[in-house]
User: Fold these one by one.
Assistant:
Number 1:
Amino acid sequence: MKNKEEVTIEYDRQDDQTEEGVIVPLDRINPDTLRKMVEEFVTRDWSELTDAGRTLDEKIEQVIQQLEDGRAKVVFDLTTETCNIIPLDRISKR
């Protein structure tokens, strides 16, 4: 039986394409792995986010807080077989 969070979803990519993915519950991700994933996300995508002079650790903590608060989700992309962090407002459950 699937975990309640393990549903196929559609999400809008930044280039206006739609992808299918699976939400990965945070409790299924090793904390060290999650932090490395967030660090990679922050260093790759932060230029599009508000910087306000934050340090790398502050940016990482901000994203982790958004994940813990449910404002963003870790999504496994079924096409590229990679994980990404997606804001909740770009996710639509099917």
Number 2:
Amino acid sequence: VFTGKNIISDGSLIGLFKCDLWYVHNQPDHSFFSKFAPLLDGATTEIKGYVRVDLQIFTKGDVVKDPPPRKDDLEINQNLILPPKVNPFRPVYQYQLKIYAADGLPQMNANLLANVKKAFSNKLSDMADPFVEVSFAGLTAKTPVIKNTYQPEFNTLITFTEFFPPLCRRIKIQLKDSDMTTTELIGTHFIDMNDISDKAERRKGGFMPTFGPSWVNLYGSTRDYSVSEEHIDLNNGLKLLGKEEIFQLFATFYEASMLPKKLGDSPVQFEIVIGEYGFLMKDLVEKKKKDQSEDDDKLYSESKAFVQSVTAPVKPLAPEKIYYYVPFGSDKPCTHIKFPFEDQRRRHYNFSILKKIYSILADLSDFVKGQVITLHGEGYSQVFISKHLEISRCALQNVIKLHGSSRHQNYHGVRKTTPCDDRYLKSIVQASPHTSSSRVTQLAMERGINISARNVRRCLSTEFKLHARRPAKKPFLTKKLLQAPVKFCHDMKYKTAEWWTTVMFTNESTFQQLCGSGYNYVCQPVGERLNPKYNLKTVKHPPSVMVWGAISAKGRCYLS
């Protein structure tokens, strides 16, 4: 909205409003009617007024609907153009962007112009005059032009005034080259507001737009300059112009086998390649050197002694003349390449840290928490649960720890037994505490109760507090029983040599009187460990007996 034109001026800006097409397209029928758009002048945080508009987006085949009848008594605050689920009283903020520097810019002028400048100034300068232009919410601002440099330092603060959350989702940053007649676009980068902010309330985790300081990658056409400028349209974003560092790729070859027979008559070499670096083709090497800047050529020549992309030729061998192998032996060949590559280490470090924090503090939904508790209570491992529900192990362990999860608790899953069935299970173990869970399951199945041994143990422990424990052993050892083994050993110790000459054969063996049941667990209440009802008799009816016997020349040998 502008002021009226007159002879002296074309009018000044009162205020403007801008929104992305996605907002209008997301409305019902891709349109809205009789909505008020707030106007801002871009310099102050005050609203300059409202304009009432109708906006529609039509595509091929859409049916155009007539607007509803207009009403003059509409409330402005109730009919504002707003983002979805946002309070109508949006605050106005100042968005500040700090442009620090740029690096690795391509040549933007022809060599003829460079020679002309060299003739006048007697020195060869960089063929680029860069500046940065930023556009957001209908407003555009730019930094000063830095002359004759490929590494400009801008150190400029750009400020925009706009609502939060805004109706414009992207900030466009363009790096341009200034010429005498026109400006040329070098590269473009977009910052999405949804990636650097959250419109939720601060107490619910929302935060204002925050980004950097960080290098951003610019995308444009190829780096080689031509007067025809046939690829100038690509400067809106295809070719990566990122900041690079020198890295080294190292590889060791341990063995090489099952080579085809056609390679057996000539020596074999192995080569590692990354991108265009590592090839031995002369034309590719010359092209690479031509495209590189002087600094890259110098660095590449200095580190050339540390570049070896091909192994030494070795003739393969074939024991059976079918497949060949390379006899490396104990000396394994190594290859290494130094190459420029975009340095993303800091970004990866920060991403890993944030991912770790998110996995620990992730707010899982109540449904997912219930699934975790149920699966863990049924005995599934944490690895299976994390893969099945696609959540991190840290978040899984936090849920288990927070809810005091245990495999012997019932987490309100689907009951498989009725209260009457539970009382029947209790009556079995109360009548015979030494009955195993497998036997209880068998008795329940005979009665028509479909239940597993795991659920039997969980039901008895959670519903009736009858935990399966190892029983206390109750020995029935009288004074006579304690003295009898000692007397037996004493008699055998003092047998004479004459007596032992009559013994032809002696041996000992174990006889099982009862079938072994492993650990003899018993279902007992808490505090009833020493109750005779839940004790295990160990002497009166032992499960096994050790018997020692002998055969003598005079017949049966006595044992005591």
